[in-house]
Amino acid sequence: MSLVLFLTFSHPTATAAASHLAAAERLVAALPGLTEGLAMTPATTSDPYLDDGRPPPLVLQLGFAAIEALEAALQGPAQAIAAAIPSLAGAMIGAQAMLARRFPVPDPAGSAHPCAYLVSYEGEAEDANAWLSYYIAHHPPIMARFPAIRAIEIYTRIDWCGPGGWRRENALQRNKVVFDDPAALTEALNSPVRHQMRDDFARFPPFHGRTTHYPMHTAICPRAVRAR
Questions:
Q1: Residue 74 DSSP symbol
Q2: DSSP label at 9?
Q3: Is CATH 3.20.20.70 the right assignment for the domain spanning 2-220?
Q4: Coil, strand, or helix at residue 148?
Q5: CA distance 199 to 192
Q6: pLDDT tens digits for 51-82?
Q7: Model pLDDT for residues 79-107, shown as the tens digit of each residue
Q8: Contacts of range 75-84, beta carbons closer than 8 Å, 24 or more positions apart
Q9: What are the sequence ranges of the domains in the chain?
């Protein structure tokens, strides 16, 4: 398990310019204590059950081994990263620190530039412990049956300290499944496993709130390596 900081840039029409994104990725890679830096931008796929509209123009997923390093990143360096993307000026930026759980898949090898399906449960469960316990015990084994799946990660919320100015997000849970490209993700979403996922979803303990599902191209920020 590790700690993850999500920075979500929300804008109805803007797109991150490639040159600005490259500059931001270099700043991400230089963050002290960073174990993983991912930059996610919109992809296109087809889900037989859901269409949550246009994905956010940018989501940064920043991994840390210690909460101190994560919180330090929020005290200035993260603002510099946002400033390096003027094409997203005016975007609302949401921040949330979470605990990451990773689950095994049959064949984790794959593309260096994968496609992720990023899901966020932005409400509340009537019994959070029962909801999370059911989800973590039952949903990942079904996800692992997706054809050509490369990774499964589930994130649960933690308490964290950060500066004001950004929207402080409080999703109950997020999760991510990873594939080689949008075509592989589309094939998985239209496989029989997707129907099994919906059947299991109907068995979840009561939850009230918004849930989003976004396909995202995922790039590894250059020189972002696991801290020793």
A1: H
A2: E
A3: no
A4: coil
A5: 11
A6: 999 999 999 999 999 999 999 999 888 889 99
A7: 899 999 999 999 999 999 999 999 999 99
A8: 75/162, 75/163, 77/27, 77/31, 78/5, 78/7, 79/165, 80/27, 81/7, 81/24, 81/27, 81/28, 82/7, 82/9, 82/24, 84/20, 84/23, 84/24, 84/27
A9: 2-220
80 phi-psi bin (left φ>0, alpha ψ -120 to 50, beta other): alpha
Indicate if the alpha-carbon torsion angle 105, 154, 40, 207 is positive or negative.
positive
For the CA atoms of 155, 156, 159, 165, what is the dihedral angle to 10 degrees?
50
Can you tell me the distance from the alpha carbon of 215 to that of 148, in angstroms, rounded to the nearest whole number? 16
Q: Is 0.85 topped by the overall pTM?
A: yes
